[in-house]
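My main concern about presentation is that the manuscript never shows what a single data entry looks like. An entry of this sort, consisting of the sequence and the corresponding backbone structure tokens, reads as follows:
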Amino acid sequence: MMKADSECCDETECPLSNEALKSYHNATPRVKEPVINLSRRNNKSNRRKDPPKEKSLEKQLEKSMGKFQECQLKATKCRNDYLMTLAATNTTLQKYFKQDVMSLIDCLDLGYVSQMKRTLSAFHSAELQVQKLHTDCLRRLEIHLKNLDAGKDKDLFLFANPVHFQPPVPFQYQPHGGDEVSTVVGHHDILYDELTSKYDNSLSRVETLRMETDEIKKSLDAVLSTMRDERINILQEDVTRLFHSLSPKNNLIIQNTDVTRSSSLRRKQTSMESEVYYLGKYKDYLQKANSQARIQSRLELIQDALSIDASQQRVVPQRHAGKSMKKMRKRPKSVFKTTLFGGDLEEYISITGTDIPCVVESCIEFISLYGEDPLPDLGAKGDVHLWPAYSKPTSGNFLHRSFQLI
């Protein structure tokens, strides 16, 4: 069941999965069974005063309490997954009917209005070249051309079909029995850690999808701009050359017409390839944008749950206790009666039997490693505090004599 709970937040799941609803309604009644058993055993323990049976009843009470907590935890997790699935489904529906429908209409329009505008403009130019007749009709036609607007047509189309393009009523939360909690909660340590992990994964996934959708949107804008520029450069609106009178240059006109026809076929082929590429990219954009919206809705629910727990000053138990302070051990006393600092070096060497005192070797090694100025770049305070002892004025003559002997 834990595996199913972790998989139900996958972004590829169907909106409003029946598994989340079934898991929630199946897990909630199980919480009441341990409570009933617990109350029965409490009544039995109050009636019977036999010590052995009391111990047995106490064990049964502890077992029932553990089972009750386990069932309560599972029910809470199922409710959380159900609420997140519900929010994702409602968000997807709202996004589709408020944003995607408009965008799909623009995508499937395929430049119909602009193409119609260019066609009518060509017809208008042709009529002016044939004869300047029907001036009033052509003037009204020109006015209609200026009034063509794809945005207004889309609004009128949606207004004329309100049943098919209005978002439905959002799915409502259906609690089981007397369950009054309608928000995602994380008051338990396991739930808190699980929600935190889901929050981090969802946040990284949302950022990835946002970058991918931005890149796809830039590609779509670039392709759309290129297609518009190509259509404008074709200069299909200028058809005056088709109505020139016959002249000695007629053969040249025919040759130019053939070249224009072949280039027009190539442009149509290129335009079809660009349109197919644009539709494929737009499909990817819709899929990634919908996934981003679903994950973002779950992310907001988890963020609200974690912020509520933080506002209530929830104390998370520490799993790793701090290291205990080390006890200071006394330094062993010297077995020699002579003194090193403030004494005679030759006498110290003769008594100890060493050629070079240990403290001098330590000083030489320290200076060779860190230089004469050991204080920079030292993080350990113990090493920093040892250096003034080595270089204090009382031992300056002793170190000077030691280096001379070495």
Q: What stands out?
A: The chain has four domains: 1-97, 110-171, 186-318, 345-405. The two ends are 76 Å apart (CA to CA). Residues 15 and 89 are 5 Å apart (CA to CA). Residues 1-97 form one domain.
